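Below is how a single chain appears once it has passed through the pipeline. First comes the sequence as given, then the structure the pipeline wrote out for it. We keep one example in the README because the format questions we get most often are answered faster by looking than by reading.
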Amino acid sequence: MREYIYVLKLIPRLYYEKNWTADDQQIVTEHFLRLKRYCEEGKVITAGKTDREDKKGFGIVIFKEENDEKAIDFMKQDPTVKHGIMNAEVFPYRTALLQK
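Resulting structure:
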């Protein structure tokens, strides 16, 4: 298994809290629950986001997958990506240091 990282960025409409809909909130809840499940199963190593919700803000997911194709598919299955409220890009990743 190799490590990968995908970087998530909100679509511009969601830079402003007033523009969030109940559907958007539900999609983010599904996104969180999916990542939590995969974290518990050992596939997701870590996930998180910056405190910014503007064009400079982003989230990351570091995870394990067998190959590039499966890593891309895993990213595309993220509810926020699938429903178009976040854009994402995946990269091969290698942890250099890890706190014990």
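The chain has one domain: 2-93.

See the next section for the split statistics.
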